[in-house]
Design goal:
Length: 203
């Protein structure tokens, strides 16, 4: 695939992925409330979810996505339900606990499933790959090598964008040392998480 097409794709993806949406809201809320150390499973799931949407678009499987609309709808609402559960846990979380006391529902496996559900059910991501991508890339002439190049560009862009948001959220977390500040942060994060769930559910 020519460099110009890859650069146009990267630029469009930076704008789409970098703009705050349900996935970014959930990521920032997670980092502010619990820190960045255990966020990798959530990130991996988000990147895999985007790779799935990109692959569906490239290989002309939009019809498959429409055929299995019910499956994606179920995934969407499972993600919404779990985000609301996490929002409730953040809202009611004690503010003076150590890392060893973190509830075990934040396991790597559950974080991964949540990230995947959020990404697969996110209409913003879905529309980018299924509606906008075909106007940027001539999908009819994408080879396996071209698909691999798109995946590589996608991963590099998402790593850059997500790390940017993680650093911002981690810096904000540093200033939240008092119990009152932590309570405000937890409840702000809970509101953002619930907002992400609402944004996904209502689109």
């Amino acid at each position: 695939m020519d460099v110009t097409s890859l650069l146009i794709f990267a630029g469009a993806l930076i704008v789409a992925a970098g703009s705050p949406g349900p996935s970014i809201g959930a990521l920032v809320a997670r980092v502010i409330s619990r820190g960045y150390r255990d966020v990798l499973p959530f990130l991996l799931a988000m990147w895999i979810g985007e790779a799935i949407w990109l692959s569906l678009a490239v290989w002309g499987l939009a019809v498959v996505a429409q055929t299995f609309h019910l499956v994606f709808t179920i995934i969407k609402y499972v993600g919404v339900a779990y985000l609301l559960y996490l929002a409730w846990k953040m809202w009611t979380a004690p503010v003076a606990i150590g890392d060893s006391d973190l509830p075990n529902e934040n396991s790597a496996g559950k974080l991964f499933v949540t990230g995947l559900a959020v990404t697969l059910g996110n209409p913003k991501i879905m529309m980018f790959y299924m509606a906008l991508l075909p106007t940027i890339i001539d999908l009819g002439h994408v080879t396996i090598l071209g698909w691999a190049e798109l995946i590589c560009v996608m991963v590099l862009v998402l790593i850059t964008v997500d790390l940017f948001w993680i650093v911002l959220a981690a810096q904000a977390r540093r200033f939240l040392r008092s119990a009152r500040a932590m309570r405000i942060a937890n409840r702000t994060s809970a509101t953002m998480m619930a907002g992400a769930a609402a944004a996904i559910a209502t689109r």
